[in-house]
Amino acid sequence: MATSKLQALWNHPAGPKTIHFWAPTFKWGISIANIADFQKPPENISYLQQIAVTCTGMIWCRCSTIITPKNWNLFSVNVAMAATGIYQLTRKIKYDYVSEAEAAVEIEG
Fold first, then answer.
1. By the 8 A CB rule, do 50 and 85 touch?
2. What are phi and psi of 3, to 5 degrees?
3. How far apart are CA 35 and CA 60, in angstroms?
4. What is the pTM assigned to this prediction?
5. What angle separates helix 47-66 from helix 72-93, to the nearest 10 degrees?
6. How far apart are CA 79 and CA 48, in angstroms?
7. 109 DSSP 8-state letter
8. Which residue, 109, 101, 93, 98, is CA-closest to 43?
9. Can you give the residue ranges of every domain in the chain?
10. Which of 39, 74, 85, 87 is the 20 to 30 Å CA partner of 4?
11. How confident is the model over 50-88, as pLDDT tens digits?
């Protein structure tokens, strides 16, 4: 049973014998690096980098469901990229704008 499933994965059009498997697998490194950056201070976050990560994730999520063969590894890595990019952008926006607004209110008050 396990052998037949493993063989089916190996021979799949988006399996390990193709670029359709390895490209998204290595792309997970970007999402993992973005997750590791959750611990870094928000002032070090780059708007342009996170916008690129977010847009790439969103665009390729759609494309990964249209292409043949369907590549769910590509879809999942791009969902992760979009999610981590949105989270990082949220952290940066809160740091740049919300904390400044709170500081201004405290100064006035």
1. yes
2. -65, -40
3. 19
4. 0.80
5. 150
6. 19
7. -
8. 93
9. 18-108
10. 74
11. 999 999 999 999 988 898 888 889 999 999 999 999 999
